[in-house]
Amino acid sequence: MKRRECITLLGGAAVGWPLAARAQQSGMPVVGYLNGLGQNDRPNLAAAFRRGLGETGYVEGRNLAIEYRFAENQSERLPALAADLVGRKVAVMAATGGTNPVLAAKAATATIPIVFTSGGDPVQQGFVASLNRPGANITGITFFNSVLGAKILGLLHEMVPDAAIIALLVNPKDPLSASIRSDAQEAARALGRQLLVLNAGTPREIDLALATLRPRAGALVVGGDPYFSSRRQQIVALAMRDAIPVVSTVREFVEEGALMSYGNDSADGYRRAGVYVGRILKGEKPADLPVDQATKLELVINLQTAKILGLSIPSGLLSVADELIE
Question: Across-strand partners of 197?
């Protein structure tokens, strides 16, 4: 069994303590990695985080230990997992995989440096005093995916102009759900379209929410909650069963058969978070590290899905797409 798999066994239970203790006794720094998803959900993001650490000279198992804690999509577990990492006296805590892990980490410690990844506005959420001068023990990377509703609906309108009603899937457990819904409502009104809001936070609720998509809606926008990325196969399969085009901020949805995605490069954001953790380990203070505003937006279109749905992709979208999946 690989070392990292051992640490994350039993859904992030505290089984890595002897390794962490030995690392600390030898002077090797220990980083806590708190994540709201499952340990097998989007493993490319944890790998990108480690790449960022490597850019600052830190390599797991050589001069750094990482304690992984995954909530397995159960947000109620996050406070205990964050408290566990604080109890293990990690040098820095990375709070990733949604807003709830950041809230849990922030509530657990006011002294251990925290580096977050977040889809919302960290100032409005109360994580930092300002983007340029965070001011306390927390800084990080923001994707601002929660405010991409207008752009996403605009792209969808170009691709599916006949969709008079557009469904929006949001997770009521996500603290950003209200802002995502509000942003999408405003964008839909500007386009002269009606927005149908569907709430779901469990696999069963997703089944029920998407069961009646057709004929109520002509397209589906998936909200930016990371939980949905762990259920992307389910969501895309249910929508495609009824020939409903799916758009998301996450490119992995397109790889599963969704029509299109538009959003920041999540892996690059996690890499940047790893860089920030490395810089803090080298002595920089989170209060002095400006929140990094990820701006590597990418448009990905699935040509095969468009063909299945009988959609003709406008030449303008083809010309600006960052990637076309055959």
Answer: 168
pLDDT (tens digit per residue) in 186-212 = 999 999 999 999 999 999 999 999 998
How many whole angstroms separate alpha carbon 226 and alpha carbon 208?
Answer: 20
> Please, which pLDDT band fits residue 6 given cuts at 50, 70 and 90?
very low
Residue 3's pLDDT band (cuts 50, 70, 90) = very low
User: What domains appear along the chain, each with residue ranges and CATH number?
Assistant: 3-144+265-295 (3.40.50.2300), 146-264+298-325 (3.40.50.2300)
pLDDT at 293: 87
Q: Which pTM does this prediction carry?
A: 0.87
Query: Residue 83 has which token pair?
Result: 């408290």
Distance CA 192, CA 189 (A): 5
Q: How far is Cα 228 from Cα 220, in angstroms, rounded to an integer?
A: 13
Whether the predicted pLDDT of 217 surpasses 80? yes
- Spatial CB neighbours of 131, under 8 Å, sequence gap ≥ 6: 122, 123, 142, 290, 291, 293
Cβ atoms of 96 and 35 within 8 Å: the answer is: yes
- Cβ(81)–Cβ(102) under 8 Å? no
Name the token pair of 80.
């205990």
User: In the numeric block, which tokens belong to residue 243?
Assistant: 């020939």
C-alpha–C-alpha distance, residues 173 and 202, integer Å = 10
